[in-house]
């Protein structure tokens, strides 16, 4: 029985993608692997993810970045978290540093806007060791309940690459679904941050602001009541 549709978006990543797939084959079971190739016609991350989700039918959809490496037990730990409550709709993994697996690059989140901020620390010091509800999680390794997707819909394709993950978490939470961080699910991920602001960075940010009623004046952001509500710790 297929329990998990695994969706990976590929773009100029032949070597890391091969390593990612090898880790999936080694550590995962009962899955349908869906690779969305963006190399010929770059649809953007968000549309490619949605196209991949639509190709599957499993009860859980696992979105994995092509530069992530799956560690043993990561898949089952995500699935187990959904058993906690029927309204658990989104579960994100702990993301560890490639070169030093004691360093936590994503152990849950805090601020989503104007720039996403991740919680971190060290595994050896017991940081981020407890599963917790989150306002949002990074989609480099995240599992979604298909029942939730069928009810809420897909990611917002008006956001080409960034903000679509946090926006989707806020949309689903507004519809009554919970978003969780699961520390027993662990992957390796670099979390490279681009220092270059491109046109699509600006466009995605402006789209996020319009969607959630965020404005900017007098050198500060003003937030809508809905966004303030959803931005509070759940």
Characterization of this structure:
- The protein has 7 helices and 12 strands.
- With 234 residues, it is of the alpha+beta class.
- The chain has a single domain, classed as Spore Coat Polysaccharide Biosynthesis Protein SpsA, Chain A, CATH 3.90.550.10.
- Strand 1, helix 1 and strand 2 form a beta-alpha-beta unit.
- The chain is globular, with a radius of gyration of 17 Å.
- The N and C termini lie far apart (34 Å).
Q: What composes the largest sheet? A: 10 strands, mixed
> What is the CATH third-level topology name?
Spore Coat Polysaccharide Biosynthesis Protein SpsA, Chain A
Helix fraction? 25-40%
The structural domain count equals 1
- Termini Cα gap: 34 Å
Quick rundown:
With 234 residues, this protein is α+β, with helices and mostly antiparallel strands.
Keywords:
alpha+beta; 31% helix; Spore Coat Polysaccharide Biosynthesis Protein SpsA, Chain A; ten-stranded mixed beta sheet; two-stranded antiparallel sheet; single chain; 234 residues
Topology diagram in text:
Blueprint: E1 4-10, H1 14-27, E2 31-37, H2 45-54, E3 60-64, E4 69-70, H3 74-82, E5 88-96, E6 103-106, E7 121-122, E8 132-133, E9 141-145, H4 146-152, H5 164-174, E10 178-188, H6 199-212, E11 215-217, E12 220-222, H7 225-231
Parallel strand pairs: 1-2, 1-3, 5-10
Antiparallel strand pairs: 3-9, 4-10, 5-6, 5-9, 6-7, 8-10, 11-12
């Amino acid at each position: 029985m297929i329990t998990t549709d695994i969706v990976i978006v590929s773009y100029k990543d032949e070597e890391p993608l091969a390593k990612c797939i090898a880790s999936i084959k080694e550590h995962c079971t009962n899955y349908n692997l869906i690779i969305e190739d963006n190399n010929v016609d770059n649809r953007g991350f968000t549309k490619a993810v949605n196209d991949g989700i639509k190709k599957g039918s499993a009860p859980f959809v696992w979105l994995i970045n092509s530069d992530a490496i799956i560690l043993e037990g990561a898949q089952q730990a995500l699935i187990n978290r959904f058993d906690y409550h029927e309204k658990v709709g989104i579960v994100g993994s702990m993301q560890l540093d490639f070169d030093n697996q004691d360093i936590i690059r994503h152990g849950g989140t805090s601020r989503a806007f104007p720039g996403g901020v991740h919680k971190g620390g060290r595994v050896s010091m017991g940081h981020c060791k407890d599963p917790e509800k989150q306002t949002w999680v990074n989609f480099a390794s995240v599992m979604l309940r298909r029942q939730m997707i069928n009810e809420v819909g897909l990611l917002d394709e008006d956001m080409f690459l960034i903000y679509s993950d946090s926006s989707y978490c806020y949309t689903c939470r507004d519809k009554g679904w919970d978003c969780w961080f699961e520390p027993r699910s662990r992957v390796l991920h670099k979390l490279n941050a681009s220092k270059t602001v491109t046109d699509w960075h600006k466009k995605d940010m402006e789209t996020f602001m319009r969607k959630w009623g965020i404005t900017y004046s007098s050198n500060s952001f003003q937030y809508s009541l809905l966004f303030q509500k959803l931005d509070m710790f759940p």
